[in-house]
Amino acid sequence: MKSSSIFRENSEKTERWIVTNMGRLTPLLLSSLCITLFFTGFFVYHQNPFKPISDRQFLSLQPQIDPKCDLFKGHWVPDKRGSLYTNSSCSTIPDSKNCIKQGRPDRDFLSWRWKPDGCDLPRFNPKAFLSMVQGKKMNFIGDSVARNHMESLLCLLSREETPKDIYTDDEDRNRIWYFPNHDFTLSTSWTKFLVAERERRDVNNTGTGLFDLDIGKIDQGWSKDLPNTDIAIISAAHWFFRPIFIHRGDESLGCIYCNLPNMTQITPEEGFKLVYSAFFKHIVECEKCKEDLVTVLRTISPAHFENGTWDTGGSCSRTSPFGENQIDLESNEMKIRTSQIEQLERITKQDHKAKKFAVLDVTKVMMMRPDGHPNGNWGNKWMKGYNDCVHWCLPGPIDAWNEFLMAIIRRLR
Fold first, then answer.
1. Which of 187, 301, 391, 399 is catalytic?
2. Is Cytoplasm there in the keyword field (predicted)?
3. CA distance 203 to 197
4. Which residue in the list 83, 144, 187, 223 is annotated as catalytic?
5. Is 391 an active-site residue?
6. Is the pLDDT of residue 200 over 60?
7. For the CA atoms of the chain, what is the radius of gyration?
């Protein structure tokens, strides 16, 4: 403050001198004096304007969200800015999610953003996100919709830094990407049910589509990597809508969609409770896991088949969002979403050391977006005539999930 006061006093004296002697100064001398005065002001003042902004300062400049604001209660509003990336600017979009490349003619589905009631959800900022997760490992654990979510984040972050593709398995289900400038690892771990599972086989060793789940054991495919994970985004849902026998070790608990005599019938939401209870129990009791492990539950993402199911001609050809009065708040998806959250809430009431939990509640948000799916524009030559109303176009409304994710991570910091 003292240097600032001295600068202002000297500036006033200099200004009076210039006015008094204006006629005596040559234009060149006058220009030199003004330039000197300008730069003296910059460097004598207490803060250097050319000093780089640190990551911590940068994050503090980002829009803050009221922690009391419910991010997931709101509506979709028009936004002509569209997505941060395009189907051609992001080279990692799979053809099956590149709806525009596959011939989708409309673009209006790209011109909406989610607006929570009572606050604003900031637009995704790849620089700020990478600063928050620097040195961390983030894993998306779940089915192909979990992979869809990761692919959206990959495209958004690629606007700031080009990642290295460092691992893929033979079936291209488990992937690892690395952002060297931020020492950030982004990966996916494929699992259909989260817990140990086995598909029943017929006499010809062909899969029958009937599954046995053991909620007493966790799927080792993803759990073996959990001790190295800093942030786990967990989601599994769409494989549960089929006949499934649920066990705990040798104990039979019942079956979903079986209708067999002398067999306890389990509803899908009850099955979700059993599985997610086992999952969260494993997280809490994981002694090898990092104490500050962050686990984000992403609730079930709704499908939008109309006039049939996926194998009976169902489609999703709408080109604009629904309003809240057009969705069914008593739907099976909402019941399953409730059962997922109930298990998380039950666990978080218990002592779980420093581990942190959060909900990325997309169910109701995405029930309003029947226009966001590939439908027939998914380029699957083996399934011509079938439509995809489960996964989401890239770019598309699924990008909002990462705006939610960024807000959640900031709240947990």
1. 391
2. no
3. 19
4. 144
5. yes
6. yes
7. 27
User: Is 128 in contact with 409 (CB distance < 8 Å)?
Assistant: no
Q: pLDDT for 23-33, tens place per residue?
A: 444 444 344 44
Cβ atoms of 83 and 110 within 8 Å: the answer is: yes
Residues in the chain: 413
Report, as an integer, the average pLDDT of 373-396. Answer: 93
pLDDT surpassing 80 at residue 47: no
Confidence of residue 380 (pLDDT cuts 50, 70, 90): confident
Which pLDDT score, from 0 to 100, does residue 66 have?
A: 74
Candidate list 143, 214, 361, 388, residue with the active-site label = 388
Residues β-bridged to residue 74: 116
Closest residue by Cα to residue 137 from 227, 231, 225 = 231
Pairing of strands 137-142, 184-190: parallel
HEC per residue, 28-55:
HHHHHHHHHHHHHHHHHCCCCCCCCCCH
Is 339 considered catalytic here? Answer: no
In what side-by-side order are the strands of the sheet with 207-218?
A: 195-201, 207-218, 244-248, 251-256
End-to-end C-alpha distance for the chain, whole angstroms: 33
State the Cα–Cα distance between residues 332 and 321, nearest whole angstrom. Answer: 20
Q: Which residues of 345-371 are buried (b: 16+ CB within 10 A; e: fewer)?
A: eebbeeebeebbbbbbbbbbbbbbbbb
Q: How far apart are alpha carbons 343 and 363 in whole angstroms?
A: 16
Tokens of 34: 């003004």
Report the distance separating Cα 6 and Cα 67, nearest Å.
43
User: Mean pLDDT in the chain?
Assistant: 86
